[in-house]
Structure formats: C-alpha cells, structure tokens
Amino acid sequence: MSDESEGGGESTLTVVLAGGVNLAIAVLKLVAGIITGSGAMLSEAAHSVADTITEVLLLTALKRSERPADRRHPFGYGKERYFWSLLAAVSIFASGAVFALYEGFTTVFGKGAEQTKPIVGYIVLALAFALESVSWAQAVRQVRRDAKAEQRTFFAYLRMIDDPAPKTVLFEDSAALVGLLLAFAGIGLHQLTGSDVWDGIASILIGVLLACVAYLLGSTNRGLLIGRQADQRLVRGIRDHLGSAPEIDALVDLQTMLMGTDHVLVCARVDFDDALGAADLERACVRMAEELSERFPDVAEVFIEPVPRTDPKLRATVLARYGLPPRPNQ
C-alpha cells in the first residue's frame, strides 16, 4: 500500500477539491432549477448538496482517523475513517436519492409544469459537467497511481482499497457525470415533446443511480468497519515469513484485521520447537514482530502466541474457519 502520510495528503486534496466543486455546482443547479422549473435540475441540485455533505463527512473521517492511540483506544482511531465514510454513503441516499425519487414521481404523476428558459439549464449543466470532470480526473489519477504502486489493475485495486475517501469521491463524481447527462436528456426531451414526463423520468433515474452508489459505498465501508482481513498478498507474505523461522515447527493459526488505512493487526498462534527455553521464546517473538513490521510497513501490531498444534479444540477452530490444517514448518 502507499505511504500513509502521502496517501492521507492526496486523499485530502481529492476530497477538498470535490467538496469545493460540488458546493459551486449545487448553487448553480438550484438557481437553474428554479428558473427553468425542471424537476431533473432540482434533483441534480439535491445530488450536489448530498455530495457536498459527503465531502464534509470524508474530511471529518480523514482528520479524526489520524489521532494517535491512547488509553481508551489502544489500537488508534483508524476505523473512524470507515464510520464517517459509512455516514457519507447514507447521506448520498438520504439527501440525494430520496429527494430525486420524490421529485421524479411528483413530476410524472402530478400536475404538469411549464418549462421556461431551458437554455439556462443547458448552460448550467455544461458548466457543471466541466467542473465535475476536474474533480473526477483527480480521483481517477489518485486511484490509478495507488493501483500502480501496488501492482494491481484499476478495478482490482478498487475492490481491495482500504482508504474509502478516493473510492467515495470517484463513485460520486462518476454518478454526478452520468446524472448530468440524464438531466440534460430530461430537459431536452421536455423541450422537444412539451411533456414534463421526460423530466420526471430523468429524476427517477438519477435517484436510482444515487441509491445504487450509496449501496455500493455502504457495503464497502460496512465490511471495513466490521473488520476485514488484510490483503491476501500481505497475509501470504506474513505466513511465509513466520513459516520460515527456525524456531517455529508449525504455524497453527494466523489472523489479520484492518484497523484503519495502512494499519494491520496480526495475531499468530505458532507451535515452537520444544527444545527452546523460555528466554529463547521471548527473544524469538520480539525478533519476529520487529521483522514483520520492518518487512511489511502496514503491519502495526503483532501478537504471537505459543500453542501446541495437537490441541483438538484449537485445531477444530482453525478447520471451521479456513478448512485447512495447520501448516508445518518446511
């Protein structure tokens, strides 16, 4: 994964840029929606307001998650990033999707509204598209660079990313660009046909789009907040490193959990060589913990517990979790 300080600075830039863009766009869309009477334009204004709230929540996530560990939170505050990012996903749904769906159904099934000055809507949508493209390009640039650093494809990195900020901005900006095209189509078809049903359909589609984005982001942050296993490549590296230690006869169990962005907790149960004394065990545990932290920068906490590989209860627990027996030292 990328260096934590550099990644945090890049994430902050991405979020701040997106927030400033969305706030400006929200004002433009609201004014255009009032002037044109377009339901789709008002839905897009709500969309931008939701995105602005999202950026505020993401900034809160970035700042609060950087606090150092203390007595009440000995593992730090890394998971605050996931909590506030989850609230951002809820905001997208509550502030954007619900209003857009309401506006859409009201337009389709309610009393028709007369369209006025559609040219204002077209101009605002074009400006909004240009501004959103700047924010979207920054998010894409960050994800591409981080994916390249981890030697992953763009989409593989998005699936495994443990920093929700750039993913949230990328998804919401992508949805914003699609939403702008839908609003443009709604206003255009309303002008061509004289029916505001098209405007309402565009609003409904915008609402569905936002609901889908909110669900995807909420699902991602839910998994991270609950406590997801570290990346498989990191897990394999830790397993191989411990398995190669001369003091270890078998790696009985290995558990990892993301405690925050670039912050991994490692718990290993190992069967040591029975010929080792207590002092040898202590020195071996300290050495291996230091080696793991040096070799894998994301490893922040390491706990190594000596256990017998033949213990039936422990063996049953490992088999129930992974379906694999403990690995003997080669």
The geometry reads as elongated
Helical proportion?
Answer: 55-70%
Number of strands: 4
Helix and strand element order: HHHHHHHHEEHEHE
Domain module tally: 2
CATH homologous superfamily assignment of the largest domain = Cation efflux protein transmembrane domain
Number of H/I helices: 10
CATH class of the largest domain: Mainly Alpha
Classification by helices and strands: alpha+beta
In spatial order, strands of the major sheet run: 3-2-1-4
What Rg do the Cα atoms give? Answer: 26 Å
Regions with little confidence, pLDDT below 50 for 5+ residues: 1-7
Sheet-strand content, in percent, reads 5-15%
If you average the pLDDT, what whole number results? 86
Known CATH architecture of the largest domain? Up-down Bundle
Largest sheet: 4 strands, mixed
CATH fold category name of the largest domain: Alpha-lytic protease prodomain-like
Short description:
It is a multi-pass membrane protein. This protein has 330 residues and is of the alpha+beta class.
Task: Please tell me about this protein's structure.
- The protein has ten helices and four strands.
- It is of the alpha+beta class and 330 residues long.
- The chain has a four-stranded mixed sheet with strand order 3-2-1-4, with helices on both faces.
- Strand 1 and strand 2 form a beta hairpin.
Summarize the helices and strands and which ones pair or pack.
Elements: H1 4-36, H2 39-64, H3 80-109, H4 118-149, H5 154-160, H6 164-193, H7 197-226, H8 232-243, E1 248-260, E2 263-272, H9 278-295, E3 299-306, H10 312-322, E4 327-328
Parallel strand pairs: 2-3
Antiparallel strand pairs: 1-2, 1-4
Helix pairs in contact: 1-2, 1-4, 1-6, 2-3, 2-6, 2-7, 3-6, 3-7, 4-5, 4-6, 6-7
Membrane topology: Multi-pass membrane protein
Protein name: Cation diffusion facilitator family transporter
Domain Cation efflux protein transmembrane: 16-224
